[in-house]
Amino acid sequence: MSDTASAPAVSVAVLxxxxxxxxxxxxxxxxxxxxxxxxxxxxxxxPLAAHGVTVVDxxxxxxxxxxxVLTMLYDGPAALDVMRAAAPGLRPGAVWSQSTTAxxxxxxxxxxxxxxxxxxLVDAPVxxxxxxxxEGVLTVLAAGPDAARRVLDPVFDAIGSRTVxxxxxxxxxxxxxxxxVLNSWVLTVTHGAAEALALAKGLGVDAGRFLDAxxxxxxxxxxLRAKAGLLLDGGLTxxxxxxxxxxxxxxxxxxxxxxxxxxxxxxxxxAERFRRAIEQGHGDEDMAASYFASFEE
Length: 297
Fold this sequence. Notes:
12 helices, alpha/beta, three-stranded mixed beta sheet, 13% strand, single chain, N-(1-d-carboxylethyl)-l-norvaline Dehydrogenase, domain 2
């Protein structure tokens, strides 16, 4: 990486302005960085203009001249498709902060593209959902060369409260591997809360009594309270983390485990719960909608 490319970033292209990408773009602009954003559905990106973000029509226009390209898209194939569309505007040596949860196979394809285009790939998935993204307090899990860290310091400082560097090679997936482990725990807790509340309903137990019984003890946790609250208060939309995305991540976790010779029965069953909830029409709701998979509809 050249000396110029290792200077702190001043311009960022954000590709994908959904639940996570939009608040990330806003926080980058609020931090004083020059931000251009693209989204497949432009109407969803337009509100960012009021926050100082330049909204453009094509990925290539977004990335032209950018110090950093940040991708926050649905999955690995989507990220690869968008980066191929961005190729005419990419400059050799640009830093690519790949924050999509792409899985190991997906990251392999993205790393190959980065090599083809002479991009500096930083594997940088984030831990957190809609509210932490809006507040700029995500945890960034990152792997990439030392020179890229200085480039990304102002970017990661704007979108997160903590950056955990786990390796110096963004192509090997160290950050993605950690993200899959963390997501496996998040999804397990989500299903546990959903099933406990479903069982309470089936047995005629007041959900409040369950929550009161564990209050303050070792079985209590903020995440249980958050997901139970969404279900009990009817707050599943807009989603903090959509059921469709949770199912995708669950299947990436199972696939990664299988490639490592590890059997994850709970994760596989959880992916199936999400699939049933999606079939029942809960795909665009928060993943706590796993609850509905316990009942026939």
